[in-house]
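OP here, attaching both records as promised.
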Amino acid sequence: MQQAWYRKYRPKTFDEVVGQEHIKTTLLNQVKSERIGHAYLFAGPKGTGKTSLARILARSVNCLGNNPSFAKATEGSVNNDKKGALGEPCGTCNNCSAFENNQMIDLIEIDAASHTGVDNIRELVGQINLAPSLGKYKVYVIDEAHMLSRGAFNALLKTLEEPPSHAIFVLATTEPHKLPATIISRCQRFDFRYLSVRDIADFLKRIAKEEKIKIDDEAVLFLAEQSEGSLRDGISLLEQAASMGSELTKERITRWLGFVDWSTVYELTKLALERDAKQTIDRVNQLYLDGYDLTRLAEAWIKIVRQMLAVKLGNSVNATEDQSRKLMGLTSGLTIAQVIWMLEESMKAASEIKMAALPQIPLELMIVRTVQMLGEKEEDKKDTPDKPIDTPPPAKADDEGPSIPRGDVSTDQKTKAKKADINWPSIVQQVRSLSPTLGAMLGQATASFEDGELILRFKISFYKEAMEQSNNQQLLRQVLKSSGMGCTIKCLVDKSSATTGGGLAVDEVVKVFGEA
């Protein structure tokens, strides 16, 4: 079986570790001055080098090249012509060779996720007084330390505070807030940071060159962006992409791995901000049909809106110069309140996708709400009459639809209303682009424009009641207004074809939602 690349290219010296300069320098100086701490806490995100640095520390403190007096006392093999900086493991002594071949028994790695109980820690404590077999120190690396139980922490507490002089503890965790304060106070804490996109991209280029993979710079940068600051994730993505063939491009990687690149999300955001709901929704549905993960799309949307907020606030943005320029263009006509609203909506959509009957719906609703929040296009405003027909909202009507007389309307307004030419199929099509379900339902209605009022006649009361809901009324009014029609809406049931009693027109309902 092939060894995973993140293990194959795991760093073996402090100098080989990507990023984390503040931690590497401190540990290297401690090794040089022989002022090694008895307990360390490595806290930070996944894939940023916590376990790797713990292993390098164990290797350095036990390297015979760094401990010539210990090597002489134990008659160990030491390379007097050691290469590299003082404090780094030499890589040639007996102990370094034991590390290289995974034979160093003085390095004890414990997975706290599967050894959470107090008995596991008691067993460790019971053996800790035994002297090291090969090296000067026994190094205990407890990975995912936050998974230990309260009893296990209590069993470890005293030993962690006063361990034998030959024992070093390294606790690695992604969630340091879950560790008891008594444990944290007994350790030297080092906080690992997310790696920059540039650092990850440079390391991926080195691996690609070593593995003889042809990959363009744009594709490497994309993989680095998708790794989200985790070098291990970036290496895993590169290894997966390498299986596609010897020549890798950004387009092939996005299509094969199902990722949505920054440019795609930028175009979607731009369309939404241009109030083009129809085309934006069409693009989202096309991405879904092409096999892209909409959850990843929503997360990418959150990131780009967050970048927009950072630009609006004048904060630094983790983006290229071209991306920063495009982000400034997106935010030029927006207020901070609007960008915050968009960020909240995108977060809401991302959380609802997995629970939605159709994964596209939360994103479609977010797009429609964004367009409504921004208002009409300027060209649509020009087509809208300056003074639309001002009529009070219609009174509630029964199924037969007797209407209560409205207030006075000027003769000129009545004349305009009577002469209004309604293109109902066009109205339905516009509504369908914003809400397929509502558009299909309106397609079952017979529409007429009488005396400044749009009258919709449905075959069954189910459609009438649905159309009278405030959100549906608001959406239809928006489309009517964009078409230059300021009017009230009245919903009736055509009794000549209405279903009576308990027999709901099931075929009609199925037809409506089938079209959606």
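Record two, same layout:
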Amino acid sequence: MSLNAALRTATSGLNAAQMGLRAVSDNIANVNTPGYVRKTVEQTPLVVAGQGMGVSVTGTKRITDQYLELASQTAGGEASRWGAYSQYIDTAQGLFGDPTSDNFYFNRLDTLYSGFSAAANDPSSTLLRSQAVANVQDFLNESQRINGQLNSLSDTMDTRISADVSQVNDLLTRINSLNGDIVRAKLIEQDASGAENIQAQLVDQLSGIMGVTVSPHAGGGVDVRSGDGLKLAGDGAVTLTYNSGSGNPGYITATSDGGAPQPLQLDSGEMRGLLDLRNTELPQLSDQLGEFVQGTVDQLNAAHNASSTVPAPNTMTGRSTGLDINSAVSGFTGQTTVALTDSAGVVQRQVVIDFDAMTMSVDGGAATGFSAGSFDTDLNTALGGMGTASFSNGTLKLAGASGLGVAVDEGTSMKAGKAFSHFFGLNDLVRSAGTGAYATGLTGTSDHGFTPGDTITLRLSQPDGKSLQDVTVTVPGSPTMDDLVGALNSPSNGVGLYGSFALDSQGRLSFSGTPPTNAVLSVVSDKTARVGTSISMTQLFGLGAGERSSRASQFKVDSTVAADPGKLAFAHLDLNVAAGAPALRIGDARGALALAESGDVNTQFGAAGGLGTVNMTVARYASEFSGAIARSAADAQSRTDAAESVKTEADARRQSAESVNLDEELVNLTTYQQAFNASARMIQAVKDLFDVLNNII
């Protein structure tokens, strides 16, 4: 080997040792720096014309493990998702109160029913009647408070998600910018580990907010993609936007420079947990709360409609059924009796309505036929000037002539699980500002009643909120509910690609998503209105979270009863008394007892929250609902603990692989120092040889 070659070899060794010492120095200096990843120099033999000419330093390399990085980021995303979910579902559970306290929401049922039980012991007591009414209103007020705060929690989710989106946009911009710095450093063979460490920390922050996949970028840095493969950063950062609207699932879109917004699928991260709450869990809680309150109210109203005040009220005005007279009356079975009584409770006229035979009989006389479409007119005729019946805008109204009151014996009448007076809400104790119950009693052959050509726009989304498709359904000209359901389920102009609507035995219209998308439904716009009413399809059938989440806030005690608790219906109409004897008697407490026992009567609850359609008592449903809330909170905490445990383990293993070990670095320091000294001595030896040669010359 020539002296020049020996000098170049020694010099390359000296440079390599210097770079190694610099790397070791950086490692030791940053031993306690969070996020710092130890580095080492990459060396390769320098070969010229087949001969070794020293060492070449190809660059500085961070000691990372791609598998451990992925495991840590995935675990971090899951931990953030369930941490956020658990935090707010625990807050939602807290809205219902402490189960061991008398103020626990579900304990108010006992107070409500015991109030009527006490009043039954002394039905003439104004104080006990007032307390019973106050207990009902207190229950409704508490339901409204909880529902309002659940909706406020949804607003909080919107605020948190918007803040997360803003942070993600900043992180993506910085990650993408660092790609340029890293690529430039590598092109000129400079140390890019500082920029790579910062970028790795930013990626870790990003994966905690939203689930991402990371892969190496050509030339250095990383490419970042969403769970469904959309590139977010690498060759330019996209801009995320949070899209939300009342009653519709919130979802995230990504827009690249000059491109169109594309919906994102989120698999993990804090935003996924917040979206799960906002789109699914909180609306389901509001929906189930509404169904629970509706079931409780239905049984109170059933008992109240089966009873009467003494004397009977002069006028009974029902709720808006949203139906025309033909649809409202069709489908009833059994018999009911409408009676007109004087101030002493003596019956002056009674009309027995037989829905099976479609006849009316006045004061025990011969039965005459009636039709569903002219029911109000036919009943008006049967009352013979002593009372009137009218039907307008979906509402039935009965009134007695001067000095006469109206009372109803429900008898065996039944439609959609409700007796005659109860179905029309003629003597409801609790009124709703909306339609309340969605059991319409309509069947497949019933007229749908909506104006042909009117439209309803529905949105189908994935459970995480990602929009699948908006469809606009046109009300068909063909008249039946089967025709309407067919139009809704059309695969070309309806929801048929992602699920289907079905009408159950009580006239509830519900949507079910089909695998693999398991789509959820929301209402974008509804321009329908049932003929003769202003009630839309959304309101009539409770379609979409927007309609159903407001239901629990719409109930209040009937204004007449609230103003005068003496108007509570505590007596039963007794049609078996002797002629001239009162059919309504002061002191009759059978209605009060029925109200007190209404929580133990089986009722059909529609599908809501985590429960499908079930038939059980109000008290049993309260227990199931309360348990479901507790289980949901406990399950979320369990998932959080499990995710945190996995994250801790993944982070520990990653840190073990990436962090600085002082013992190892001291060994490397000694090695590089010795290599530096050896190269320096070799340079000195070459110098000495050059000096000898010069002296010889």
